[in-house]
Design a protein that fits this description.
about 70 residues, mainly beta, five-stranded antiparallel β-sheet, 1 helix, globular
Length: about 70
């Protein structure tokens, strides 16, 4: 596991086509923004097992990029 520190507004780029940005830090909560191609699945960790069983999800795609899941 790679562990990094980031500040609000800083981004990570994964494999050149997935961007993770720290949008807000408030107390012990961090809000992240994710931009990825539509064919990339993004799930919260606690939903990963449930998703594997149900194989259903709701995706929001804008301009060919996955912007919400």
């Amino acid at each position: 596991m790679l562990v990094l520190s980031r500040k609000v507004g800083e981004k990570l780029v994964i494999d050149g086509n997935i961007t993770v940005e720290v949008v807000k830090i408030q107390g012990n909560r961090i809000t992240l923004g994710l931009v990825a191609p539509a064919d990339v699945k993004i799930l919260r960790g606690e939903l990963n097992q449930k998703h594997a069983k149900a194989e259903t999800s709701e995706l929001v795609v804008e301009d060919g990029l996955l912007v919400a899941c």
